[in-house]
Specification:
The complex is a heterodimer of chains A (244) and B (364). Chain A has 244 residues and is of the alpha/beta class. Helix content of chain A is 37%, strand content 17%. Chain A has nine helices and nine strands. In chain A, the strands form two sheets. Chain A has a seven-stranded mixed beta sheet, sandwiched between helices. In chain A, strands 5-6 form a two-stranded antiparallel sheet. In chain A, helix 1 crosses helix 7 (181-199) and helix 3 crosses helix 4 (102-111). The radius of gyration of chain A is 17 Å and the shape is globular. Chain B is of the alpha/beta class and 364 residues long. Chain B folds into two domains: 7-240, 3-Layer(aba) Sandwich (Rossmann fold), CATH 3.40.50; 245-363, Rossmann fold. Chain B has twelve helices and 15 strands. Chain B has a seven-stranded mixed beta sheet with strand order 3-2-4-5-7-6-13, sandwiched between helices. Chain B has a five-stranded mixed beta sheet with strand order 10-12-11-14-15, with helices on both faces. Classes of the chains: A alpha/beta (244), B alpha/beta (364). At the A-B interface, strand 2, helix 2 and helix 4 of A face strand 2, helix 3, helix 4 and strand 9 of B.
Chain lengths: 244, 364
């Protein structure tokens, strides 16, 4: 029998700790598939974040260095400058990248560091139990915005891609979502393109992925996917935001 | 640049050149007075070094984490700052201690707390010698007292950092950083290779993937890691404790001071000994603040009962002196915080008053 589908070599054969319906496991798999397909497993260096995906090192079978919360792009900068021949990417959530690590992310982008950021936006702090994130939508109820995010006191959700598009350093910024099979395919294509941009030394690349967090959204997996498509994507429009 | 003869250099420049001669290829920093001449020197010099990387980062947080990244990628990396900036770097230093990553961090201290001022002070002794950041860890702290020693200890710091896989701190002050003195920059023996590192990230080619992290969720594993670090710190205490004894042979009173304060103390001791040939004052100068030269003090207390601790602070190292003497000896403290640098004459005045008073009471 012909084998048409199997676990990528770059993904370890261990069960994942992620909640049912979580987007991280899909995104991990896409990265692993690409590392296999692009023959980069023995070349890639990943900087996972603080947050749910801190344990990405249990799943991706590549060299990894953990970063303090928010500092992944600074760590990745240090790694890449010493090892320009390696594929260096950070994997960060919305709290990590757009709150505590905003300065590092913007300046790494602005310097045009030849790194790729996989930015997982699920509009909430997952690991710590569902607090308000910089990308939480106006009106979104979280454990620290129990009445819903109030734009007057808590501000509007931050659109990271659009913010970075104002800078000179980024070469490729795209927002995708893993809320549907088509979205998953587009996500894979976007990450591939981002890696290619890095390999061609075109500068900084970032893929923002809208990703479900059913546990903290208090929805089931299907409803979470619909919420991304119908609500989240209105605040965070999908598509290529910048390409040089 | 290195020469075979001494050249006149700023302390900060000498530290930078010594770092480069030690094999440092990466510098990441953020401007803060009084140490800006060090990043400025590295900005000029590192582009001339093969593989040299200089980044003026957006913050102290970013710079220490770039050091972390460069270190895990295998380079000898450093950063420098002054007191408030060092506070910001503590998160990264704690992570590197947990991950067992080498790095050299230079703190050219100033008066504090808060923004304080930019004058020379020894206000960060506690922070430097107790780990500095969160968690159960230590970092070796080297305290030079001259431009030559600043160069020598910076060079040594890179070897120590690699040998023990641990961040190493250089603790100077604004005086030392801004001072110009003749210095011979240490150099590595020709073709002497840097140590091999079996933990660095290079891409998992022909070997299993590597992981460098400080997160250890299992409490037993975390405890094991803490004890492993502790054993390493014990090895550092055994092997790396350094101090200078100066005119201690006949001393009836031992002055304890480090860095710039020790220099002033030497001047004061020489002045008093010259004025009165019966004066018997010596100096114990800790060169490593952690590990603290406890042994030197315990040996000294066998011969002299009188200790005069001088710091450019309200009294921080004096606590280590008390711990070392453990109830023995009489400890007198003289401190000048806030960026005040007393002259040898001023210090000699205070020292003499204490010395002669003690002498009189001994005679009674």
């Amino acid at each position: 029998m012909k084998k048409v589908y199997s676990r990528p070599k770059s993904l370890r054969a261990v069960p994942m700790h992620y909640c049912p319906g979580c987007g991280h496991s899909i995104i991990h798999r896409l990265i692993a598939e690409l590392l296999d397909e692009m023959n980069l497993q023995d070349n890639a260096i990943c900087v996972p974040p603080a947050g749910c995906a801190v344990l990405a090192y249990n799943y991706l079978d590549i060299d990894m260095v953990e970063a303090p919360h928010g500092r992944a792009t600074a760590v990745a900068t240090g790694v890449k400058r010493v090892r320009p021949g390696n594929l260096v990417f950070s994997y960060q959530g919305d709290g990590d990248l757009a709150a505590i690590g905003t300065a590092e992310a913007l300046h790494t982008a602005n310097r045009g560091e030849h790194i790729t950021v996989i930015f997982v936006n699920n509009a909430v702090y997952g690991m710590t139990g569902g607090q308000m994130a910089p990308t939480s939508l106006v009106g979104q109820k979280t454990t620290t915005s129990p009445l819903g995010r109030n734009a007057k006191t808590e501000g509007q959700p931050i659109r990271v891609c659009e913010l970075m598009a104002q800078l000179g350093g980024p070469s490729y910024l795209e927002r995708v979502s893993v809320s549907s099979p088509a979205g998953v395919r587009k996500t894979k294509a976007a990450i591939k393109k981002a890696f290619e941009y890095q390999i061609k030394k075109c500068g900084f690349s970032l893929v923002e992925i809208l990703s479900p967090c059913p546990t903290n959204w208090k929805m089931d997996a299907m409803a979470s996917c619909s919420w991304i498509d119908e609500v989240m994507a209105k605040q965070f429009p999908l598509g290529v935001i910048k390409e040089v | 640049m290195t020469t075979k003869t001494k050249q006149l250099m700023y302390g900060t420049h000498a530290a930078g050149e010594a770092a480069i001669q030690a094999g440092c290829t990466c510098y990441f920093g953020y401007p803060i007075t009084p140490q800006n001449e060090l990043p400025e020197y590295m900005a000029r010099r590192l582009p001339e070094v093969p593989g040299g990387v200089f980044i003026q980062a957006e913050s102290e947080l970013a710079s220490i984490n770039m050091v972390l990244g460069a270190s895990v990628a295998g380079a000898r990396a450093m950063t420098s700052s002054s007191s408030p900036g060092i506070s910001l770097k503590q998160e990264g230093i704690s992570f590197m201690a947990g991950m067992e990553l080498p790095a050299v961090i230079v703190n050219i201290m100033r008066g504090g707390p808060g923004l304080g001022n930019i004058a020379p002070a020894q206000s960060d002794y506690f922070q430097a010698t107790r780990g500095g950041g969160h968690g159960d860890y230590r970092t070796p702290v080297l305290a030079p007292a001259s431009v030559q020693e600043l160069a020598d200890l910076t060079f040594l710091a890179f070897d120590m950092a690699d040998q023990y896989r641990n961040p190493v701190l250089i603790l100077g002050d604004g005086m030392l950083g801004q001072l110009m003195e003749p210095v011979l920059i240490p150099t590595r023996k020709k073709n002497e290779p840097l140590p091999e590192k079996d933990y660095i990230l290079t891409g998992a080619k022909d070997r299993p993937a590597r992981l460098v992290k400080s997160l250890i969720l299992d409490v037993k594993e975390m405890e094991d890691h803490n004890w492993k670090l502790h054993r390493k710190y014990q090895r550092i205490e055994q092997n790396e404790t350094r101090w200078e004894s100066y005119r201690m042979e006949d001393a009836e009173m031992a002055v304890i001071a480090y860095g710039t304060a020790a220099r002033i103390a030497k001047g004061a001791i020489n002045r008093l000994r010259k004025e009165d040939e019966n004066v018997r004052i010596g100096l114990i100068r800790p060169i490593t603040l952690w590990p603290f030269p406890t042994k030197a003090l315990r040996d000294a207390v066998k011969k002299t009962n009188d200790f005069f601790v001088f710091e450019m602070s309200t009294g921080q190292m004096v606590e280590d002196v008390r711990l070392a003497l453990d109830g023995r000896g009489k400890i007198h403290f003289y401190g000048r915080p806030g960026g005040v640098v007393p002259t040898p004459a001023e210090l000699a005045h205070s020292m003499a008053r204490h010395y002669y008073q003690s002498k009189r009471s001994r005679k009674k």
